[in-house]
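call fold target=HD domain-containing protein
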Amino acid sequence: MVKRIDAYGGDILRSSRFRSTRKNIQHGTVSVYEHSISVAGCSLKIMDGLKSLGIRVRERELVRGALLHDYFLYDWHTRKSAKRLKELHGFSHPEIALRNAGRDYRLTPCEREIIRKHMWPLTVVPPMCREAWIVTAADKYCSLLETLRLRKGRWRKVRKNS
């Protein structure tokens, strides 16, 4: 997986702005950087399953869109007006990520679709390309695992201290 992610997204992975997402937390203790790479890997696994069924997927765009889907470049947990931002982050960050990614990279229409629609159904309009559906599903799956790990960790601490 790592070689495939690097083959299509190496320029993204090595860019200073993308590397700066290591300091921004996504879920629990998982950084946006780690989350984005996990979503790219999970998306490739889904793609491999679909390919075995004869369903064509644009691998390069899948990987690049997955890496950039949360390219909003701030820590939404600590930003000023955090309460208001937390309430709106799920709705607003896809457009912020798309604006940042469009500034820093040449995006295809498919990559734009992935970034813009990955929060469906919060984005209201569903994804229109297969790759965006894959990243949307992979993002939900990875987010769930990261969130459950967070809760499991909190539960253990509470139970240990009882």
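return ok
The first strand starts at residue 25 and ends at 27. The longest helix spans residues 130-161.
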